[in-house]
Structure formats: C-alpha cells, structure tokens
Amino acid sequence: MPELPEVEALAAFLRERAVGHTIERIEVSAISALKTYDPPVTAAAGLVLTGASRHGKFLDMHLGDDLHLVVHLARAGWLHYRDELSRTPLKPGKGPIAVRVRLDDGSGFDLTEAGTQKKLAAYLVRDPQTVPGVAKLGPDALAADPETFAVRVRSRKGQIKGVLTDQSILSGIGNAYSDEILHAAKLSPFAISDRLSDEVMARLHAAVRETLSKAVAKSVGQKAATLKSEKRSGLAVHARTGLPCPVCGDTVREVSFHDSSLQYCPTCQTGGKPLADRRLSRLVR
C-alpha cells in the first residue's frame, strides 16, 4: 500500500511533470472506483492541473481554481504516468486501469489496481474535506510535534502497531512503515499505547520523524515507475521474514492475521522473545 512517503513522492512527480497541463478528459473504466457524481468527471475537461498535494495517504490533484481529484490508492493501487497514451478509449471493466487522466500534450496517467479486491477510490470534489476519509484524518504523522504526538497516541488504548496505523489518530503511516518505525524505536508491536513512558514515547516520536523523513528524501525525485522497488530496497524488517536483521543479525519473524501480517526483530524489539502468531496457534490446536 502506498504510504506517506510514496504519496508525497507521487505528488512531487505530478508537480514536476504534469502541473501546467490542461486536462483533455478523465475516463473511468471501473465505475466502482468513482465515488462522486457531482460535479461529473466531464467538468474536469479543459481545466489546468494547477497543483498536487497530499492528505495523509490521499493524493490530491488540483484542477483549475476549485476542483480536486482526490485519490486513495488502497492496498493494490498505483499511478502509472505515460508520455504517450493510446488514443483508444478505455473499455469499462476491462483490465487493471480504473481511471485514466488525459493531458493536452498526449501524455497522462492511469490509476490502476491489481487483484480482485477493488478498493481504489477517486473523488472529484470542490473541497477535499468533503471526502469522508480525508475529513476523519488525524494530524499528519510527519508534522506532529512531540506533545501532539504523545496526546494522539495515548488517546486510544491498544497495541501500538494498530494505533500507529489508525488514520484518525495520525495520518500517513501504514503497515510497512509502522513495522520500520517500531523496529527503529526498539519497541514491540504489541506494546500498549497508553502505557508507554515519556522516554519511550519520545523515542517513538523520533523514530517516526527519522523513518518517514528518510523515506520521503529517498522517494521524492523518483519516477512513479520505480517507487515501489525503491521502497522495498530500503526496508529493515517489513516483508523480510526469515532474513537477518540488519542491526543485530537475528532472524526477522512474522505474526500473521486474517488479511495482513507484521514483521519484527525479537532481539531488537521484544527482549529476544518471539511473539505469539495467533493464526499458527489455531492451526496447531
């Protein structure tokens, strides 16, 4: 899933490559991806792409003076920019392309989604705050000061992994970077959020800032096509089950859930003790 650093990089890429161009038209192939009907997508035709920004993990493309195409790429979505788009109109429901944005120079970009769970969402709105997911966002994880960060984290009692990825608490952190942040902070993903000491909270805030800042610096300037592979190449524990921890050499372990998993280093984060993998425990019984 694209998270704060990748969405920030996509916004920067669009500012560099697409801002200043006029929208020829927006084509919708996956009707389920378009969540709004007023204004219609035809209203974007003839408007200049004036900017691109980010709200948490939402990508916001500014059209003309008062329209926004706001996109959440979900778990399997991505933006593919092409210098020359085929002139053949999209066929509804065919292939991975959900939305295509054509620009006046023949270029443009596709919003695609792999897999069968179609959760990519696009909104054409006058105010991004009318998008339900944007309206519910907590403070930006990269911008929250230490005091705000501590208050937000302690506002919900739960395992810190889940709290960090709750977009209403802090926006922008997903599954991958939460694993990386907790590894950098030397904190168990099962630690309880409202029991963290001030010292541990400060360490966690510093890990958030450092991890996300480094990821943004690495991502911004990359082409959209290379962002995914570059993200994977810089990870210490996420998606590295069975590999050695780059800090201590211990084996990275995994806890699986019904639709996701987390990775961690026992030596760095849990005092050397493996965490219970509830899914495997059920299979054993």
Characteristics:
Helicase, Ruva Protein, domain 3; N-terminal domain of MutM-like DNA repair proteins; 285 residues; 2 domains; alpha+beta; FPG_N; 10 strands
Low-confidence stretches: 280-285
Helix share, percent: 25-40%
**From the helix content, strand content and strand pairing, which structural class follows?**
alpha+beta
Tally of domains: 2
What's the architecture of the largest domain, going by CATH? Answer: Orthogonal Bundle
Give the distance, in angstroms, between the N- and C-terminal Cα atoms.
33 Å
Write down the secondary-structure element order.
HEEEEEEEEHHHHHHEEHH
What gross morphology would you assign?
elongated
Cofactor: Zn(2+)
Family: Belongs to the FPG family.
GO molecular function: 8-oxo-7,8-dihydroguanine DNA N-glycosylase activity; damaged DNA binding; DNA-(apurinic or apyrimidinic site) endonuclease activity; lyase activity; zinc ion binding
Pfam families: Fapy_DNA_glyco, H2TH, zf-FPG_IleRS
Summarize the structure.
By secondary structure, the protein is an alpha+beta fold. The protein has helices at residues 4-17, 132-135, 146-154, 160-164, 175-184, 198-219, 227-233, 266-269, 278-284, and strands spanning 23-28, 49-55, 58-63, 67-72, 77-82, 97-103, 108-113, 121-125, 253-256, 261-264. The protein has 2 domains: 4-135, MutM-like, N-terminal (N-terminal domain of MutM-like DNA repair proteins), CATH 3.20.190; 146-284, Helicase, Ruva Protein, domain 3.
Explain the overall architecture.
Residues 2-150 form the Formamidopyrimidine-DNA glycosylase catalytic domain. InterPro entries: FPG_cat (IPR012319), FPG_N (IPR035937), H2TH_FPG (IPR015886), Ribosomal_uS13-like_H2TH (IPR010979), Znf_DNA_glyclase/AP_lyase (IPR000214), Znf_FPG/IleRS (IPR010663). GO terms for molecular function: 8-oxo-7,8-dihydroguanine DNA N-glycosylase activity; damaged DNA binding; DNA-(apurinic or apyrimidinic site) endonuclease activity; lyase activity; zinc ion binding. The protein is of the alpha+beta class and 285 residues long. The protein has 2 domains: 4-135, MutM-like, N-terminal (N-terminal domain of MutM-like DNA repair proteins, Alpha-Beta Barrel), CATH 3.20.190; 146-284, Helicase, Ruva Protein, domain 3 (Orthogonal Bundle). Helix content is 29%, strand content 20%. The protein has helices at 4-17, 132-135, 146-154, 160-164, 175-184, 198-219, 227-233, 266-269, 278-284, and strands spanning 23-28, 49-55, 58-63, 67-72, 77-82, 97-103, 108-113, 121-125, 253-256, 261-264. The strands form 3 sheets. It has a 4-stranded antiparallel beta sheet, with no helix packed on it. A hairpin with a 4-residue loop joins strand 9 and strand 10. The chain is elongated and about 60 Å long. Mean pLDDT is 93; it is low at 280-285.
